[in-house]
Amino acid sequence: MSRPRPIVPLSIAGSDPSGGAGLQADLKVFLRFGLSGAAVPTAITVQSAAGVREVVPLEAALVGRQLAALLGDVRPAAVKVGMLGDGAVVRVVARALLPLLRKRIPIVVDPVLTSGDGRRLLPRKDVAVFVRQLVPLATLLTPNVPEAAELAGVSEARVTSHTPDVIAALLRTGAKAVLLKGGHLSGPEATDVLRLGEEMVAYSLPRLPVGRRVHGTGCALSAAIAALLAKGLSLEDAVQQAKEYVHAAIAGSRHVGRGARLLDFQARVGE
Ligand code: PLP
């Protein structure tokens, strides 16, 4: 008796040698949800959890060849797109993902523009091509407040004062749904807002007293959503469960070196 083929989520993201963010983190998150993922690197970063020192995008054609080889053999059940590094890589990834969109494979786009310590991970000049070519492929776009401001071309203050308008502007760029992450805001609760069609859902969890610097929370959230969509959950349920997982992973986060805390990737919730 042949066993069913495994469900394979795919991460397309930058390498982070600390293992706290990027491609390395995504694979750990996939495994936490029981899935053995595929992974295409787009950029090498020189960093530890103490900060990013160098960002080197891979040659776009090389990223394209990795995707062609992989996608010629495996049909991913969902895709997470993280750091891309430059506009040439954005174009190549968008071209490779277009056939997946037609097959209705969910694509979660985490608009990784800067690191937590303020380094550019996508040059400012390449944000327009990202918005034009990649965002329209997104089943879900997951910006935090600074990313939403940059993508919509508004101030961060406007994102918080006119959240529904800014989310509507992001949907007009072609993403099917937007999850605006409120983790950068202050207040006793961390609230994320999901807009899907005309529906708005707010997800709130108590803010944890671990300080601002936990490395890789955005990467883990988008990877967890992709894993759960790959397993067939609805977008609303995937976001809810992914948030609970990241909350538990933050609660269990620890210092590995002198830098920011790293998530507890093995955190378990509701079991
Ligand atoms: N490095 C890589 C490769 C990433 O993909 C990301 C975030 O998405 C980061 C660094 C930034 O992580 P943090 O915001 O925790 O600095």
How many structural domains? 1
What is the CATH homologous superfamily assignment? Answer: Ribokinase
Oligomer class: single chain
Structural class: alpha/beta
From the alpha carbons, calculate the radius of gyration and give it in angstroms.
17 Å
- In whole angstroms, how far apart are the ends? 31 Å
| Helix content class | 25-40%
CATH architecture descriptor? 3-Layer(aba) Sandwich
Count of helical regions:
9
Q: Average pLDDT value?
A: 94
Ligand inventory reads:
pyridoxal-5'-phosphate
The count of DSSP E runs of length 2 or more, i.e. the number of strands, is 12
> Which regions are unreliable across 5 or more consecutive residues at pLDDT < 50?
none
Q: What is the N-to-C order of secondary-structure elements (H for helix, E for strand)?
A: EHEEHEHEHEHHHEEEEHHEE
- Report the sheet with the most strands, covering strand number, pairing sense and barrel closure: 6 strands, mixed
Name the shape in a single word.
globular
Query: What proportion strand?
Result: 15-25%
CATH topology: UDP-N-acetylmuramoyl-L-alanine:D-glutamate ligase
Main-sheet strand order equals 3-2-1-4-5-6
CATH class: Alpha Beta
Please describe what this structure looks like.
By secondary structure, the protein is α/β, with parallel strands linked by helices. The chain has one domain: Ribokinase (UDP-N-acetylmuramoyl-L-alanine:D-glutamate ligase, 3-Layer(aba) Sandwich). 38% of the residues lie in helices and 22% in strands. The chain is built from 9 helices and 12 strands. Strands 3-2-1-4-5-6 form a 6-stranded mixed sheet, with helices on both faces. Strands 7-8-9 form a 3-stranded antiparallel sheet, sandwiched between helices. Helix 4 links the parallel strand 5 and strand 6 (140-141). Helix 2 runs parallel beside helix 3, helix 3 runs parallel beside helix 4 (127-134) and helix 5 (145-152) packs across helix 7 (163-172). The longest helix has 17 residues, at 235-251. The radius of gyration is 17 Å and the shape is globular. 47% of the residues are buried. The model has no long low-confidence stretch (mean pLDDT 94). Pyridoxal-5'-phosphate binds at residues 13-14, 16, 21-22, 45, 82-83, 112, 115-116, 215-216, 218-219.
